[in-house]
Amino acid sequence: MRRIDPELPSRYGSWHAWRHLALGFGVLLALSGAARAEPVRLLMLGDSITAGYGLPNGVALPARLEAALRARGRDVRVIDAGVSGDTTAGGRARLAWALAERPDAVIVALGGNDGLRGLDPRATAANVAAILDALAAQRLPVLLAGMLAPPNLGAEYGRDFAAAFAGAAASRPQVVFYPFLLEGVAGEAALNQPDRIHPNERGVEEVVRRMLPSVDSLLDRARPPA
């Protein structure tokens, strides 16, 4: 008759317990890895330029920015929170609704319609400040894309309007500031639609190309996905 080792049950029980512990630890690692695999959620709060006015589906600024970031190895989902015709006041009013998307970082790209309507730069500055402060209260990293006024409104208005954005960023050093959303695109006929206001597909790609370093800086500050 084969002899049974009297210590086998205890050794087997110990091995069995360790096996279950290792399996459980592996499951926890897999779950935590799955959580980290969630893309960073980048909200773009803007107007018709963000919403892709006059452009085919899939070539608006948020979509092209997302594609460019992914091409650079960034696992990012860019959420389009653009509303055509929106002003800084409109963006301020709907900010809480936009934040229901639970972003990890935010690009604020408003102000074009304030300038086109000749709104008081002091009101624009107050709206931008309120948006930035609300985002800071949520501990969200922010990129503020500034805007310039149409030149026909005069040099003084243009200076005050640009200062509405530059001043808000200067007093909040945690904000990444990109001085002009349409840098290199505004006024270039080949990069704009016939209205000379909204970028065409080539113009969108140029906006993305120029913004990318600033967006990279923003994403480096984003909290890891939950």
TrEMBL record:
Q: Which Pfam families match?
A: Lipase_GDSL_2 (PF13472)
Superkingdom in the source lineage: Bacteria
What terms describe the molecular function in GO for this protein?
phosphatidylcholine lysophospholipase activity
- Residues of the SGNH hydrolase-type esterase domain: 45-203
Q: What is this protein called?
A: Arylesterase
Species source reads Plastoroseomonas arctica
